[in-house]
Amino acid sequence: MRSVSHHQLEAFVRRCLVALKMPERHATIVAALMTDADLNGSDGHGVFRLPQYVKRIRSGGLNLQPHIHLAEDKGAMALVDGDNGMGHLVMRFATEIAMERAAEHGVSWVGVRHSNHAGPAALYARMPLKRDMIGIYVAVGNANHLPPWGGTEMLLSTNPIAVAIPSNEEPPIVLDMATTVAAYGKVKTAAQRGEQIPEGWMIDEFGNPLTDPARANEGFLLPIGGPKGYGLSLVFGLLAGTLNGAAFGKDVVDFNADSISFTNTGHFIVALAVEAFSDIAVFKRNVDAAIRSMKGSPTLPGFDAVRVPGERSFQVRCQRERSGIPIPDALFDSLAELAESLDTEMLSES
Description:
This protein is an alpha+beta fold and 350 residues long. 37% of the residues lie in helices and 17% in strands. The strands form 3 sheets. It has a 7-stranded mixed sheet, sandwiched between helices. The chain has a two-stranded antiparallel sheet with strand order 1-11. The chain has a two-stranded antiparallel ribbon with strand order 8-9. 47% of the residues are buried.
């Protein structure tokens, strides 16, 4: 492992994107969001994805001059067309719209089509927190790794959901989960590190446990809760994909294998103003009380503490802001090759 400061990492990502002719203002936004993913511990969705993004940009599969705009506008409800732009830019635009409309209407649902991979779900669910709003984000994953329950054809993706709820003195509640036992990004990072994955993440076509991530293409991910996870993945795909005129099911493009085809990724973001339902201060104090109640619960044997969603991410962020972001050697070497190919300054260790 190498260690780099988040300032160094953000500057490196920005340099790479600018070298690819992405407008500087866009590169600044994307670099900040990608670095935020790594700070929060979403290692499969931060700088790990940069070589993949670069490949897609070089192949012409991503629009560097997108006209991100409202395709439909119904006040509290809206539909954003991302014009095949970088997913981070599209979702930031959509989330800003959702927050503006929620301030006026109390709640806003903004759908998105013609987007791309946008990093971890929590990035966008967290944004409304700064305005004392609840954020809810759902996306169609960028590759299908899940068959319908009882089937073998991979027609569904991890289709994640994130929900962020503001608090007062405690860190906010931030639920960020895939509808599969593990996100595929975790499988990819394990493969790069030469690590095995736990039983229960994947099975092969014969139903046997698959623990070698290098053989991931020989099997598929398992849904959380069996048929319940399958049902969630299906419903989220319909809401984030089909409803928005975005890809779903057989139309999903595997961006791991295809760098040229437009992905037409779909998402939606909901911003909900707490003040439309409750006094903000009272609500946040009550959230604090709920968190403390959970954490004060007696533990089962083998557990050192009861945790709440987002707690680990908060702790990781605090640690990485102090001591730097760990970069596995294989990824560091890949980024060095990338910098050389782009004729830009390499990432420096802390």
